[in-house]
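Following up on my earlier thread - several people asked me to post the actual chain instead of describing it. Fair enough. Here it is, all 614 residues.
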Amino acid sequence: MKIRTDSDEEFVRYVLEARSEYLSLRLKQEPAIRQIYVDAAANVAQDIARLAPGASDLTRNRLIALEKSLTREAENIQQALERRLRNDLQEAVGLGARPLQMHMTSAVQAAGLPLDVTRVQRGFGHVNTAAVEAIWARTRNGMKLSDRIWETSDNARDNIRAIILDGVARGRDSAQVARDLEQYVRHGAATMAGDYPGMMERIGTRVPQDLCYEAWRLARSEMSMAFMEGVYAAGKVNPAYKGVRWLLSGSHPVPDICDDLASADLYGLGPGGYPAGDEPPYPHPNCLCTVAPMTEDTQEFVERLKNWRDDPGSEPQFEKWYTDVYLGHIAQQPPSSQAGVTVPSPAQILQPPKKQTSQRVPMTKAEWQKSLTNLVGKEGVELDTAASEMVRKFRSAFDAELEFEDELIKALAKRRGGGKLRSAVAELGVALNRLPIDATRDNPSFKALRLGDDLGRLYGDFNPSRGIIRIGADTFTSRPKLELNRASRAYETLIHEIGHAVHCANEGHFTPWMNTMWDLDPLRKTAGLWDLKHYMRAPGVPKDTDGMTPYGRKDPLEDFADTWRILYVERNGPSLTTHTATSEGGRIVYGDPHPRFAILRELILQLGWKVPTL
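Reply from S.P.:
Thanks for posting it. Predicted structure:
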């Protein structure tokens, strides 16, 4: 049996694309962390100005009062760092796992197995979630990650205090001290030392050269570890996984243990090769080296899958994967009271079982409005606490996370100018409650709703590998297209993106709709609709354009989501978009609904979900 890495071009492309996205994530992270500290310093500088407006010095009483500001900003730094790392670590784990997930999905499809691809992917989602939880639970030197973040923010408070006290000792007034602090946070101690000779001799090692360095170091270490954990976790649910190869970072300054890891051939897999179960742990803080997964030769793997399809007993390894991973959530249920129940074979599995509706604590529009009103006028820790309460309610209602971009949450808290934005966000509650609960709470492809990111020209997007829906910041100020009485386009955008999540989780069930509406490009037939490397590049040709939107023509995935959107927005009866129509005596007479809406509605009803009439 051959083990391949660089000789398997498609798999190597998966690895390189994931690594490239990971590095892009890292490049965005450090400026974002710098901004957290810049914001904190600006707040302290404002407090200095308020405590001593026009004063020539900062008295002892003013310094005592300033301590409250320092403590508040330390808490702000801690919470902002934790939010940032929580999102980035989850994404890093997903990127580490992605090559093995895509490899497994592609092989299952190439072998012609009658399995639900979404369900195959769900196994990777489960181990990814467990890996992220393990990262936050792991202790180092007796401290969990959240404790180390707190220690980092506490040290930042001490360093800011040292800069302020040095300014006081030099007799600088409050305005000058505020400028010193902001300069240090933005540009580091070296710049200040050049401007004020003797400063570094006075402060010595009490402050670092760069206030952000400790947070950067923590983030780099945890991100690198998370990427590796993603690889190792995905290996547990891909039977082709054989181990990893250790790869030195391009910015590796001096020889250390990483050189030994990269050069050692302890298992006959070549330099830096380690088999499954003996993967190397993260070696040292600030390490930027990485691992690349090794798999069985893809063609041999596909042939073995075909053998298993025809004779399940011929491949015990795949039988175990099928029972433990593919049917894992079934196997974990309590035993049935019925005698003679057997586990179905692969050929018998064509659709995932219909999900039972879960009980939930509803989050109505009034609850959204109440939670948003509770943000008004708050800042710092109070604002984070109020936002956390809204997140808790959302989680209870939809079993998913609600995340806010920092600038959006601040804008929502404004007394003046924040009312329209709060109204637009509150309408998301209307949209979610209009949809069947199975489309949101009981949807494995809907794990988080993130609001306020800069999405460029997009109103929203959906990440199928992470189950995250994002609504862009500008969407909340954009005019609606279908429901003109809404506060913004966010309402209909969310319904559209939920349509993606529904399709992703139930692709097999909606195949009749897709086959009726589209003559798919061969690449989409073989690689699957949700293999996004072909998204909008190889859509195919629409068979039926009645009721199709211009955006839906760009790709079958967008066509489905837009059809779902039009079906679920409020309508006052038939329209030219949804129905056939003729003109009789100067008035419009509506006929039957267009097939795209009628077929989709019928398929939704077959799931037992609520759906508007046509």
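The chain is about 55% helix and 10% strand. That should answer part of your original question.
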